[in-house]
Amino acid sequence: MSPTISVEMSQICKQFGKVAANDHVDFSANAGEIHALLGENGAGKSTMMCMLSGVYRPTSGTIRLFGHSVKIRSPKEAAQLGVGMVFQNFRLVQTLTASENIVLGEKSSFWRGAKWMKEKQEEIRGISEKFGLAFPVDRPIWQLSVGEQQRVEIVKTLYRGAGLIILDEPTSVLTPGEADQLFVTLEKLKAEGKTIILTTHKLKEVMAAADRISVMRKGRMIRTVDKSDTSERELAQIMVGKEISPPRAMAKREKGKSLLSVQHLDVYAEHGRKALDRLSLEVHQGEIVGVAGVAGNGQKELAEVLSGLLPWKQGRVVFNGQEMRTASVRHAIESGISHVPENRMKSGLAGSLGIVDNLLFKSYRTKERSWLGFLRIGRNRQWSQELVEQFDVKTPDLDTPVQQLSGGNQQKLLFAREINRQPLLMIAVHPTQGLDIGATEGVHRLLANLRDSGKSVLLISEDLDEVMQLSDRVLVIYNGAIIGEMSREEADRERIGQYMAGLHDGGEEAV
Amino acid sequence: MDMLIQIIVAAVGSGTPLLFATLGGILIERSGIIQLGAEGLMLMGAVVACMTYLNTGSLGLALLAVFAVSAILGVIHGFLTVTLISNQIVCGLAMTLFGAGLSAYLGKSYSGIPLPGSVPKWHMPGLENIPLIGDLFAHLDVLTWFSFLLVIVMHLFIHRTSWGLHLRAIGDNPPTADVMGIRVQAFRYGYIVVGSMLIGLAGADMLLVYSPTWTEGMTSGRGWIAVALIIFARWNPVRALVCAYFFGALDTIGFRFQLLGSHIPSYFLKMIPYIVTILVLMYLGWRNRNKPSGAPEALGIPYIREQRF
Amino acid sequence: MNKQPVTGEVPLNQGGASSSSRFIRLPYRLEYDPSKRVNVWWITIASVLLALIVCGIFIAANGMNPFPVYKKLLSGAFGSSFGLTETLVKSIPLLLCGLGVSIAYRISVWNIGAEGQFAAGAIAATAVTIYFPELPIYISIPLMMAFGVAAGAFWGLLTAIPRTYFQVNELITSLMLNYVALLALNYVVFGPWKDPKGFNFPGTPVFTASQSLPVLGDSRLHLGLAFAIIVVVLYAFTIKYTRWGYELRLIGANAEAAKNAGIRISRHIIIVMLISGGLAGLAGMSEVSGVTHRLMYGISPGYGYTAIIVAWLAKLNPVGLVVSSFLFGGLIVGGYSVQTLGLPSSISNMLQGAILFFLIAGDTIGKFRLKRND
């Protein structure tokens, strides 16, 4: 008996402006199967699923759901058609209780007395018990663990009668134990004839949970395979692609002195979450150290600690022979650390101010830029003009608000500012995010030049190509700790990919 | 004992306008819009009530006019904050300044004229037989009874109805509410309008019950105290009742002190509500330094749908 | 100065930002485009004109023809040398208070307490005349200024401390303090400082010549104008040319980025509130010493509140502040002159509020474009 196809997406294209997020993608999933959609960040998996759940509309292509050709125009319509999606960032109202979140949006019955609520809670409890999705129904969401919140989201889709449940990176926020529990639940849902699609980039859980696996890369569908016909290693190869861009010809340099040494750093982020867990790393003079890893494994916090924004609980940070005792942005700036933050418009530039003001950000306290509390206006303008020319920032004039520049020019400006300070260490976080190819090239050249002039770069990026192309050494961060280290020669995609998924060389789980 | 009852009666009298304004503010802020225009809305409510009452002699028409005018002002506020996503803080300020100016302009010729009548009192049958508090309820007018009812209705509305659930959702997490099919913008408009009507009623109540002649700027900062009361009450209508009467009592305490033959100048006694407001806010800020304040999480953040099609 | 709007990933076809009702389908909708940049002068002018039209409707509703009223308003304020001088005199406290609130608004500290800070400055300056009546002019005037500025700054500090250390909304605090300061003012003028020879007039004894600011010729234009001009120049210079001004601009443009540049924001809030209050205090001092020559009941016709609109109309720009404080000074004077037509002077307050309404709408309306619903 051939399985019933519950969803069939054919020749789907999705354009965002000029960028093609999906390029003629075919995808189908059967009733009663767990289908994994595998791919790196930005491979187009989430975009595909958002089209299925009505968040986006495809530019072209057709979708068939449960045998009918459909147009899904809104999340509400998707729900009516039996599609439920659990987003990576949960769509839950923190202050409402679990059951209130589940019935939210329901228009029936204006009055919701104790009796009504009790009935609904019984109904919800019934669903949750049936599939082993236990959570306290009458507690507000903010009191629930992340795993429990996810269960609320799954029950929400079931409550709304979903036959197709999409989970977007479901384990990225779960502990291993919670993840195992989730897979048990998914098996139960499968047994009920539901279709489960989960998007992920973690090989191990794909092999553990999925029946079939579709692999996407750069907006295209590469291959769909049965689990029994494949292995983790093969999947890793398909996922990251075989073609490796030719390594940049860089002069081999002698390893310099140690510049930055971080030992056993413990950092707690908001709400007491442990973001860095005994993290240690070393950066030498004149090298680019790439930090690869899946988003949310402590990259942001690492950059913030080193640039003085976030205090640490335990551990030692030694920079340029001096121990840093407290987190101070000013001290970090003055001792030669430069920080290119993740979101340039949010924390790197002041959009409504002009070029000169944005270039002055970190150097306005120096003698060259100000004197007795007065800014050296003329000199600063000339200096800005030189920088703009040197870094080839395309701008009408020096007073143009930087929010009017293109992303690439904003990034050039930011680099101009940071490189001009002659920093000893540059921390660059996702420096090419959202840039086109030409601008990306430019940023890479700047980083390489910095290294060649004897400075150091800590490159934190989710783009594996970028990390491999530029780094002298590659570190892999996972769960707030560095779990893998490779020299440029040793680093290959497969190995990095496995570390990123939390696997050691042999395939066993790290930590 | 008599003294205590007198204080309670006075506290309820001066606390009721505060209560109405706080309830209206809670409704607006629960939907995620900062409401700082209460002072202006109250003044407009008072002056419109005064004008209509003096011209028509009908209390019902006066209240109707108050509702209509405040609703229009609410629509303006909604247009600016919801549709045009203007700065909500400055928008409230504009409402205050415009309300103060317009009410002074409109009310100039009505200044100091006593009202022809007062709001009827209503005795709940049987209540006056209860010792001690029975006497208290005998003094209550219809509007005060309405404020009691409103507290209960609002409490039930917020916590026991589907609309109340939607209200909490759009104030805390508008994107999620939108995904769940709740029309965030439309509801925000609605709550701003209804809330503004309640704040206008607060002004009318102040004029009709508390001090029955129009004087320019007669609310003297009570709108702002109501804004602070929203924070004290943690956006909860039942707590708003308690807080409003507490401030009502503070308001009358100066008067009481003078009756007792105190030699403290009345000016200092009149400062008490303002200073206590600041001190209580400071205390709350210190106590809740690591805790959520109870404010709707999306308060003050405009919501616009992303347009990616 | 706006908070960034939250955007949700929801398709528009469910009903866009404007067509919020499913029952009414409007032919056009407003579409928000954050990248669209409009900063045109005509929006400001249009705001003022629209406010005039709206208030004209209210005047007409009151049975008056609005055109002669506006004409009277204009000629009263700017039509004669007396009117012009009066307008200048009124614009001095507006300019000083407007500068004070502008510097606070630059870093998004919503000080609306200029009225109270003004009163505090006036009281403190008068205290000098009460307790040290016999000082020579070159001591008493600087001393009055110092007291006025210090008192205003202290009043500002009372707002800044709850804000920085107790997370108390500065709007409420500064407004509550306005009432406290005004009650204190009423207390002294009705009570201990009341002029015994004043026929029960609520005011202090009239200042001596050595307690009064020098005036220009025999006009009412006093030295406070010089203070105001000096402060405007200082403000413009500080914001543009100094390190500290640069830090303020940075905080105002992007507080998050300012933190990344190593700027401690809470310290700046305190300093800015001290200055903001101090300037309003100076305004209070120059008003008692230069214009009324005594502290009296109702000394301010709402200068502190008008200053908020002055600042907003000027978009915190120093030249704009000079222009808008002059205009609003004229509005106050014109407001008095329309009283001869039998209209209340509060007409100017109404106009002020209406102008602010249209100004804030104008701030964001440029970011929308009108699109046809299809």
Automatic annotation (TrEMBL), chain A:
**What are the recorded GO MF terms, alphabetically?**
ATP binding; ATP hydrolysis activity
Pfam families documented for this protein = ABC_tran
Extract the SUPFAM superfamilies matched here: P-loop containing nucleoside triphosphate hydrolases
- InterPro entries recorded for this chain? AAA+_ATPase (IPR003593), ABC_carbohydrate_import_ATPase (IPR050107), ABC_transporter-like_ATP-bd (IPR003439), ABC_transporter-like_CS (IPR017871), P-loop_NTPase (IPR027417)
Keyword field: ATP-binding, Nucleotide-binding
Enumerate the spans annotated as ABC transporter domain: 7-243, 260-504
Do you know which SMART domains this protein is assigned to? AAA
Q: Does the keyword ATP-binding apply?
A: yes
Q: What is this protein called?
A: Nucleoside ABC transporter ATP-binding protein
> What lineage does UniProt assign to this protein's organism?
Bacteria, Bacillati, Bacillota, Bacilli, Bacillales
UniProtKB/TrEMBL annotation, chain B:
Its main subcellular localisation, reduced to a broad class, is membrane
Among PANTHER family, the record links this protein to:
ABC TRANSPORTER PERMEASE PROTEIN, SUGAR ABC TRANSPORTER INTEGRAL MEMBRANE PROTEIN-RELATED
Keyword annotations from UniProtKB, A to Z: Cell membrane, Membrane, Sugar transport, Transmembrane, Transmembrane helix, Transport
**Localization (cell):** Cell membrane
Membrane-topology descriptor: Multi-pass membrane protein
One MF annotation (Gene Ontology) recorded for this entry: transmembrane transporter activity
Q: Name one GO cellular component term.
A: plasma membrane
Q: Which CDD domains match?
A: TM_PBP1_transp_TpRbsC_like
Entry's InterPro entries? Answer: ABC_transp_permease (IPR001851)
Report the source organism.
Cohnella lupini
Where do the TM regions start and end? 6-26, 33-54, 60-82, 89-107, 136-158, 189-211, 223-247, 267-286
Q: What is this protein called?
A: Simple sugar transport system permease protein
Please name the Pfam families in this protein's record: BPD_transp_2
UniProtKB/TrEMBL annotation, chain C:
UniProt keyword terms in alphabetical order = Cell membrane, Membrane, Transmembrane, Transmembrane helix
An example of a Gene Ontology cellular component annotation for this protein is: plasma membrane
Keyword Transmembrane helix on this protein? yes
Q: Determine if Methyltransferase is one of this entry's keywords.
A: no
Which first-to-last residue range defines the signal peptide? none
Where does the UniProt annotation locate this protein? Cell membrane
What would be one Pfam family of this protein? BPD_transp_2
Q: Which residues cross the membrane?
A: 39-61, 81-105, 112-132, 138-159, 171-190, 221-239, 269-289, 295-314, 321-338, 350-370
Q: How does it sit in the membrane?
A: Multi-pass membrane protein
Which InterPro entries would you find in this protein's record? ABC_transp_permease (IPR001851)
Q: Which GO terms describe its molecular function?
A: transmembrane transporter activity
Q: Which PANTHER family does the UniProt record give?
A: ABC TRANSPORTER, PERMEASE PROTEIN (PTHR47089), GUANOSINE ABC TRANSPORTER PERMEASE PROTEIN NUPP (PTHR47089:SF1)
Q: What is this protein called?
A: Nucleoside ABC transporter membrane protein
The species this protein was found in = Cohnella lupini
Q: What is the lineage of its organism?
A: Bacteria, Bacillati, Bacillota, Bacilli, Bacillales
